[in-house]
Amino acid sequence: MAPSLLSVLESMRVKIGALKESVDELRARNRMLEEENEVLRRTIEDTARERDKAKLESDFLAVSHRLAQDPDTIIDARRLIGRLIRNIDRCIEMLKE
Questions:
Q1: Residue range of the domain that includes 39
Q2: ∠71-74-78 over CA atoms, to 5°?
Q3: Is 63 part of a structural domain of the chain?
Q4: How far apart are CA 25 and CA 23, in angstroms?
Q5: How far apart are CA 93 and CA 87, in angstroms?
Q6: How many other C-beta atoms can be found within 10 angstroms of the C-beta atom of residue 86?
Q7: Residue 7: inside a domain, yes or no?
Q8: Which of 8, 70, 74, 94 is the residue whose CA sits 20 to 30 A from 60?
């Protein structure tokens, strides 16, 4: 004997309800993962900036130590380099005018 139309419809309604719940759960999980992914992207960008800054400082220190072995001489060399950079910046500004 074939199942009645009402029992088939009821069975389909139950299955559709289960599928809807599953889709809703997947959408919620997808939103959560997208938010987590965005946080991780920002963390990666921040970490990359920190890494680049640390590399620049490391390079600067390496150059400083090549210029002089004595800490006082290193400080003087840094000041001299800073002064030279400021002078170059002023020259560039004067050329722009």
A1: 15-96
A2: 145
A3: yes
A4: 5
A5: 10
A6: 10
A7: no
A8: 94
